[in-house]
Amino acid sequence: MGDDDLLRKAGLRVTAARLAIMQTVRDGDHLDVDGVHRGVRRRVGQVSLQAVYDSLHALHRAGLVRKIEPMGSPARYEARVGDNHHHLVCRRCGTVTDVDCTVGVAPCLEPADDAGYVVDEADITFWGVCPSCQR
Amino acid sequence: MGDDDLLRKAGLRVTAARLAIMQTVRDGDHLDVDGVHRGVRRRVGQVSLQAVYDSLHALHRAGLVRKIEPMGSPARYEARVGDNHHHLVCRRCGTVTDVDCTVGVAPCLEPADDAGYVVDEADITFWGVCPSCQR
DNA sequence: CCCTTAACTTGAGTTATTCAAGTTTACGAG
DNA sequence: CTCGTAAACTTGAATAACTCAAGTTAAGGG
Q1: Are the C-beta atoms of A108 and B128 separated by less than 8 Å?
Q2: From the CA of B50, how many Å to the C1' of D23?
Q3: Quick one: pLDDT at residue B109?
Q4: A130 annotated among ligand-binding-site residues
Q5: Judging by beta carbons within 10 Å of its beta carbon (0-12, 13-18, 19+), is residue B45 exposed, middle or buried?
Q6: pTM of the prediction?
Q7: Which residues are noted in the entry as Zn(2+)-binding (chains A, B) (predicted)?
Q8: Angstrom distance (rounded) from CA B43 to CA B31
Q9: Which residue ranges form the domains of chain A, and what is each CATH number?
Q10: A106 falls in which pLDDT band (50, 70, 90)?
Q11: Which residues of A fall below an 8 Å CB-CB distance to B?
């Protein structure tokens, strides 16, 4: 299924800007809004930064992109969605690396005691220093 | 051991503002910087917002308070530190609730594949809707 | 009781993000 | 196909959280 179908299925209109955003996020590696903006303009020419914010917001609400926000750094977006994977973030350089879920399918989705909450997502970030910053 | 000793042991000077910050964070429930500021002024009178930022930063570096930053909301601080507990955050009202670690002591500290990172902290946030917002 | 330097104050600056108002465009209805 | 409308986009200003900088105060070792 193409990106256009995914958009339509989510009740969103298909525009060049949105297709370019989806491609850029998929090709990129946890890009921030500015990075997405640059990628989009390289593909389809001038698009305003606000359009990128707006579209990423819409895509996120529709579940087509995932948003992560490591503390102290701007929000980042990725295409892998719905597979409950997590992130390693480097304290030095801020690089984000995917980690698959520890034990099988979705063991991290449920807390021991949910305190009455209806939980729909688990957001797990491991903090450390990446190989190239360890030198 | 009193807060003053904790501060000294961390190589920090003991001031009324810092003691008040530590008390406020301990008494409060995941307060943001503004909440801490209010609590501190109630205890010791006028203290600048920047002093609160500065001190919280120092206390955090010293490991005396823990900082959490749920996406989309300002940073929050708590006194429970070093016990690897996690958080439930309400999507509606933003309330933060502590959850103890799922399986025993520190099972969540290590990812399945650390990709060469030296991991020192795991930050786990469960997103959902709290009991009082479910009505 | 000084002296040094950490801690604090005041005030301005930065950055990521949002708000608002007006214009354009996708796309379903006719 | 073309028309109307709401979604999408544009431009520009505003906001919130936080940081930076320069000068003042005060903790605590000598």
Answers
A1: no
A2: 15
A3: 60
A4: yes
A5: exposed
A6: 0.88
A7: 90, 93, 130, 133
A8: 16
A9: 3-77 (1.10.10.10), 82-134 (3.30.1490.190)
A10: very low
A11: 67-69, 71-72, 75, 86, 88, 90, 97, 99-103, 108, 111-131, 134
